[in-house]
Amino acid sequence: METKRFILLDIDYFTKKGEHVVRLFGKLEDGRSIIVLDKNFKPYIYVLPHEIKECIDELKEFNLNKIEKIRKMDNGNLIDFLKVTLEHPRDMLKLEKEINELKSVKSVREYDIPFSRRYLIDKGIFPMSEVEVQGKILKQFSPNETCIIELEKEPRYVKSDLPEFNILSFKIETCNSQGIPKVKEDPIILISFCSNQGFQKVFSTKKSSSDFVETVPTEEELLNKFVETIKTENPDIITGYNSDKFDFPYIKSRADQLGVSLNLGIDGSKLKFIKLPKKSAVIKGRVHVDLYRIVRMHLQLNSHTIGNVYFELFGEDKVDIPMDQIYTCWIDEGENLERLFRYSLEDAIAVSKIGERMLPMSIELSRIVGQTLFDIVRRGTGTQVKWFLIRKSYEFGYICPNEPGKFERNVVGGYVEEPVKGLHENIHYFDFRSLYPSIIIAKNISPETLCYDGDEESCHIAPEFGYMFKKEPKGFIPTVTAQILNDRIRIKSMMKESEDPEEKQILNFRQEALKTLISTIYGLYNHPKYRWYCVEASEAITAWGRDYLQNTMKKAERFGFKVLYADTDGFFVTLKD
Questions:
Q1: Is 197 helix (H, G, I), strand (E, B) or coil?
Q2: 3-class secondary-structure state, position 381
Q3: Domain boundary residue among 140, 160, 180?
Q4: Which long-range contacts link 313-319 to residues 24+ away (Cβ below 8 Å)?
Q5: pLDDT tens string 275-293
Q6: Domain at 412, CATH number
Q7: CB neighbours of residue 455 within 10 Å
Q8: pLDDT tens string 297-307
């Protein structure tokens, strides 16, 4: 039995001879890729019975692996559930429906957690972080190839600093005399690469006087070079810009027409596309990141072209050629063609630099939330918070509620006071730090702490609505929120003490990732797809927020300030005298 440590990049499972096998994809310390196989993990669901013995008898009629009684916290109470282990993940949804129809069953829980996510949660391992495994080596290739190991002991999460990832960025160029290229007619003319390891290259079917350009005779060979480069560079992360929607689909279509095999995965698998929820390009064992998706989420710009985003982030212009001029440059054999080569390389360099700026926070979110980077960059913050809470629920011994799916009503937001018109001076700003998260913690606001027969001794009572939330015990959402808030405060304190610029930057990425999570928790209380949906909690939080803000404004006025403008968690004032 051998021990290996690696950075976990991706996870999936496959079926072989009717048996499902979990695969962990990663990168070893020596730079080689590794695939870890685990045949032992089984899918399961929780069943809440009316009467346990009767329910067990009815469940025995199904093709199940195991049934066991287990105690879990549910809505603030310790309850007996049946943990029902299944033979195969594909049985999950089908059996959930059939089991739910049994007379002895109140409800079925956690049936909608995908198998790969379930594995990450239950094993306590985190993508983009270090994992230690022990097992039998099935294949030990040469130093540049993949190691395959079959797991014999539980994988172990290893707390470590943020590792350095090998990131390869790429961009393709196509051309059409009318401007917009047509995939069935117009070939790929250039493929440019830039990596954070120093590799920069443009592959072209035309010759160039530039050292960074390598000429190949045909488009078919150009695509072969694309495959060869990815295999040789062996990146952990591949970044593109609009690569889900344009670059990879175009490459795939042209490769299919020319008979080129795009076997880009570390297991030799081909490029494929899945819906997540939009069309996304998948390369097994390598994380494909379409930076355009991240940029659209985080940068408010009129235009999100590579040039505009690059200028916004770095204050520099790059070589730019409008789409309708690319064809003219391509048919020219002189200076314009060389300019096109430079433009293509600078596109790849710009994608690489945008990635350097935008990726770290997404990587930290992956390490905190415990879901793959591939998913993190394609999902909104609401989904990220959902999976973070599902993981925390497992850690605390809670059963997750099912999604309600039913919307009750809109919630009144924070207090807003229109700005006083005119030119003002001597302005001050009063700001509540993390107002809504702080209210959740201080008032113990969680679905299971909501009660209807309490008093001021035992409950926090919300202004306006009178909703009551038990002071004890501490609710699930307030507990998790407090953890995030305290972690962020601790990390910001470490940033102040640190004199190492690199350490400060890494800490800043982490606190920004935590800020993203904590800023989203409140809004989800009023979202019907949220497992902890509770409209009373949402209304109570905003009511307390309005109350705190308005009372503080009144106090400020008693001390001689004049309020100029207020919005949700802060207000601007000036001094009368």
A1: coil
A2: helix
A3: 160
A4: 313/353, 313/354, 313/357, 314/353, 314/357, 318/346, 318/347, 318/349, 318/350, 319/343, 319/346
A5: 977 899 999 999 999 999 9
A6: 3.90.1600.10
A7: 8
A8: 888 888 999 99
